[in-house]
Amino acid sequence: MSKVKELYFTEKDYHERVKEIKENFEEDLKEGTLKLAKRLIEESLNEELEMMIKAREYEQTEDRKDYRNGYYKRNLETKIGYISGIQVPRARELRYERKVFKRYQRRQEEVNETLLKIFLKGVSTREAGKVTEALLGVNYSAGTISNIAKRLDEEVRRYHKRQLKDEYRYLILDGITKKIKEGGKTEKKVSLVAYGIKEYGIREIIDFKVVKRENEVNWTNFLNDLYNRGIKGEKLELIITDGQRGLISAIDMVYPGIKRQRCWVHKLRNVADKLPKKLHDSCLKEAKEIYQAKNKKEAIKVYKRWKSKWEKDRRAERAVKCIEVDIEELLRFYDCPEGHWKKIRTTNAIERNFREVRRRIRTMNVFTNEASCDRIIYAIFSSLNEKWKKHPLKEF
């Protein structure tokens, strides 16, 4: 199988891959932890103000000392990074020293370590309570803490529900498997992922969805969601997939008019499985020449020559049929601009991102719950999307 891999990774591909994985897992955790820190600090500031004026927002009490008077913003330099735009609540008349900032700076190590646990492992009211106790000197109720910490999950929810623009030329679809604890058991689940390329080479991981298995029903629901949120396919030229039957059926259901490109990497892996090892080098090497042809007309000639040669060898009959049955979809990329061919004839673009996800979560082995899985993958994909905004694909 190592020979098959050699067919697809040029030196340029290798350097592109290395470049894409330079941003390490700690940076994603830092980003997520900073967001959670900001939310907890803001909520703690609100709690602090309510303690001072002895009333919650809009609450009328006999002991009330003052009323709210909007917010002002301030920034905070911390050991985990710079937190900007923290909303600090004000009272109309009451002046008081805000202890939250001083407490945070004095106990940063303890607070940051607990924030990291919350971000990685899911919302724990006990752990979150430690944070607010460190910030305010008071340990709040489980309900209050749960509402504070869930704000990060709300951001993930908004990501999954946001409206989408129908601006993608190419759509690459695939799934990645992970282990998640559920009901006291560890189960394998799949994240269905949609990766899009827009005009001028702007790429984006559009969305993902955690499901129990990769099948037609789940793919159809995922694609229907993308469609209903805005991706009608008006500009879609090609959808690139592996050979997963459920996915292909789902595409036919939701995007019946869009042409499909079958991934060459997955196809040649299938071909290799149908060949004796002695024929791997010669047969696969010649098959590679099909998609390396200068144009579609030449590719068809190369394919016919390859087919004519290898179908005579009984050991290669199944391998030949494997390509023959999908040759039309394998050559669809030739109908697109030549500069795009390398990016759309395989699912390598999305596979590289999957390898990056696996690399970053390797030490975790298993996610504590589905929410923590969603949160981490969202953080990784958001980080990649932000980077790609500044670095469009040069070929486009």
Describe the 3D structure.
With 396 residues, this protein is α/β, with parallel strands linked by helices. It has a domain at 25-149. The protein contains 18 helices and 7 strands. The strands form 2 sheets. A 5-stranded mixed β-sheet has the order 5-4-3-6-7, sandwiched between helices. Helix 3 (25-53) crosses helix 5, helix 3 crosses helix 18 and helix 6 packs across helix 7. The chain starts with a helix and ends in a 6-residue tail after the last helix. Mean pLDDT is 81; it is low at 1-9 and 17-26.
Helix content: 40-55%
Number of strands: 7
Question: Unreliable stretches, pLDDT < 50, 5 or more residues?
Answer: 1-9, 17-26
Amino- and carboxy-terminal Cα gap: 32 Å
Q: What average pLDDT do the residues reach?
A: 81
Structural class: alpha/beta
Q: Would you kindly provide a brief summary of this structure?
A:
With 396 residues, this protein is of the alpha/beta class. 53% of the residues lie in helices and 17% in strands.
What descriptive keywords fit this protein?
53% helix; 18 helices; 7 strands; 5-stranded mixed beta sheet; alpha/beta; two-stranded antiparallel sheet; 396 residues
Chart the SSEs and their pairings.
Elements: H1 2-6, H2 11-20, H3 25-53, E1 68-78, E2 81-91, H4 99-106, H5 108-121, H6 125-136, H7 142-149, H8 151-161, E3 168-182, E4 185-198, E5 203-211, H9 216-228, E6 238-241, H10 245-254, E7 260-262, H11 264-273, H12 280-291, H13 296-310, H14 317-324, H15 327-330, H16 341-344, H17 348-361, H18 370-390
Parallel strand pairs: 3-6, 6-7
Antiparallel strand pairs: 1-2, 3-4, 4-5
Helix pairs in contact: 3-4, 3-5, 3-6, 3-18, 5-6, 6-7, 8-18, 9-10, 11-12, 11-14, 12-13
